[in-house]
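Marked as duplicate of an earlier ticket. Keeping the data here for the record.
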Amino acid sequence: MLKLKNIHKIFNYGRINENHALKDINLIVPKGDFVTIIGSNGAGKSTLLNLVAGTYFPESGTVEINGQDMTNWPVHKRAHLVGRVFQDPLKGTAAEMTIEENLSLAVKRGERRGLRLGLNKKRREEFQGLLALLELGLENRLEDPVKLLSGGQRQALTLLMATLGDPEILLLDEYTANLDPKTAVQILEITGRVVEQGKLTVLMVTHDLKQALEMGNRTIMMDQGRIILDLKGEEREKTTVNSLLEKFSEKSGRELTNDRMLLQR
């Protein structure tokens, strides 16, 4: 499904603050894998997602999705293949538009759009069915402006929008970080249902070590632009938060000092 080969990404090339954000990244993600990605600040987690999405291009290496080289494809050309949910709940929706209008735009992601959103009785019924999966009562609020929704409701709507159009890959970039704990748990439960129903391939960045081991079927740890640990199968099942920290120290040669990650042990 996704293949990153010899990826190297540099910011501020040739300047005094030159930063090698990703260094020789090689990663293969089969269809249906749910990969959680952890690491301290500056490890390269979000940069990795941005390269998959087409926000950034690598200095060297290739990005393949479904066997097709998309290394130099910009965001809009990959839009029908890659769905994404950001950390900021306000970022994935158009606040002044209604719920049904936002969903209509999401359905047309990556396609040419005319002046009409294509809303009709059948489409509204489809949207109601999809929204009912969220179990938030949004199926009865199709004509409400999105700005009236809570942060958790908007993030749930963004998640649903990101999966419309059957994307090949879903990117979740610390998408529960700005939510209160109770709402975050609810969004994670919704994510499980949506991913299972759509049989989606997922890359999820998180600072929560426990969450990283409980969600999905594979965990990758990054440090200073490199993948230093790739856990799956029985090894992952036996890994605890404490042993994960030990593995980090063993692979990196130093202690994990990220306060946010340590507080969520």
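See parent ticket for discussion. The chain is about 35% helix and 25% strand.
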